[in-house]
Description:
This protein has 171 residues and is an all-alpha fold. Helices cover 77% and strands 0% of the residues. Helix 3 runs antiparallel to helix 4, helix 3 packs parallel to helix 5 and helix 8 runs antiparallel to helix 9. The protein is globular.
Amino acid sequence: MFVILNSGKVIFVILTVFYSALTLSSNTYWKHNIIVYENILKYTSQKNPMLKNLIEEYLNHGLYLNALSAIKKFSRYYPESSDRYLLEGYYYYKTDEIDNAIDSYNTALKINRYNFQIYYNLSLCYQKLKQADKAIELALESVRLNPFYLDGLIMLGDLKALEKQHALALQ
């Protein structure tokens, strides 16, 4: 009897997980991350750090006005956060305002000089400005701070390859 009860519970859990996954995969309402984050923020405090994820999604989908409005809100909640300036920099980068992006990232560095993402994003800016030496220097710092950040490693390899430093790119 005990074995039958336990196997019944296992089957119930498996079926629940299966039908939940099936529902989520077929329900277009939950497929869009923006909708998920907006709903989370609708039912929780607006000061929820999930606002950062929503801003990144807005930027990734080219919804710049929505992103700018959310960045202003984030800035009110976290005025001295390096993430505030990281998000501003990402906004400026995505809207091709590279000098403003660099200024925002440099402000973020003054607050938190140990954030590998800031160095990575600065490196992207200098790469866009075709300043390979500065881009490599910043990419190296990003990788030094987080040697497991795959995007940083790939970018560093690409930058070294562009500079014809193929042997260094393999290191």
